[in-house]
Amino acid sequence: MLIAVTREVSRSIARCELTHLSRVQIDLELARAQHLRYQQALAELGCKVVSLPEQPELPDAVFVEDVAIVLDECAVITRPGAESRRPETGPVADKLREYRKLVLIEAPGTLDGGDVLRVGQTLYVGLSGRSNSAAVDQLRALISPYGYTVKAVDVNGCLHLKSAVSQVAENTLLVNPRWVKPVDFGAVEWLEVDPAEAYAANTLLIGKSIIYPTSFPRTRQRLEQRGIRVVAVDVSELQKAEGAVTCCSLVFEQPDMTRGH
Ligand code: CIR
């Protein structure tokens, strides 16, 4: 069974962190309606959605991806690069403890889950404004005993590694080549975003389908031409907070204990 941990949109989202975008008004009710539709898309694709309550004082708390990396063997609780986001970890850690052993990134390491792209047994970590090489070293020490390889990659011009590259099929990445170098990701196939849609590289792969924003029709056409099934969601209000589709959930496999022998 796939579990998707999410968290309700905070009433204070208007005070979110912004790095590459200018602040514009966010319609809270619309953001919540869009987030609900996003969760429905996860459920339609077979996920059991575990929704955490709103954190009224933590503007960016909806973006749960940044506070943990869930592997089969453990969950790594991050130390987010933005100080305002560090208190977000506690309630997510409390929930993940029900499913996994927890391990922690500690100071001076900083790591946002949005900077971590997993392809098979390799975890690529973007050295962004949020994640540093001390965290890469810690992550490597924590998870290499389980057989994972951790590789640092350069990322320039965007918030997180996964703003620039994400997985759209088993051996295929969707990339914005202005922000990362496709050759850094080894022997995979890649597809480029349409040049008019810089932010279009962030997709959430669930099984053989991707959850994908409605705002990138040109890149969507490229994806569909490659035979990729797209489930489109309107996330305009979360995009104003510099979020996208991977960042609003932590998706992981969990054996279904209710199905006995
Ligand atoms: C931030 O700047 O931290 C939030 N406003 C947006 C975080 C988006 N996270 C992600 O894409 N993984």
Q: What do you see in this structure?
A:
- The protein is an alpha/beta fold.
- It is 21% helix and 26% strand.
- The protein has six helices and 15 strands.
- It has helices at 28-44, 89-96, 133-143, 161-164, 217-225, 236-240, and strands at 2-7, 47-52, 68-70, 75-77, 102-104, 116-119, 122-127, 149-154, 165-169, 172-175, 189-192, 204-206, 209-213, 229-233, 250-253.
- A three-stranded mixed beta sheet has the order 2-1-15, sandwiched between helices. The chain has a three-stranded mixed beta sheet with strand order 3-4-5, covered by helices on one side.
- Strand 1, helix 1 (28-44) and strand 2 form a beta-alpha-beta unit.
- The chain is globular, with a radius of gyration of 17 Å.
- The two termini are 16 Å apart.
- The model has no long low-confidence stretch (mean pLDDT 97).
- The chain binds citrulline.
- Citrulline binds at residues 16-17, 19, 60, 63, 65-66, 82, 85, 114, 159-160, 241-244, 247.
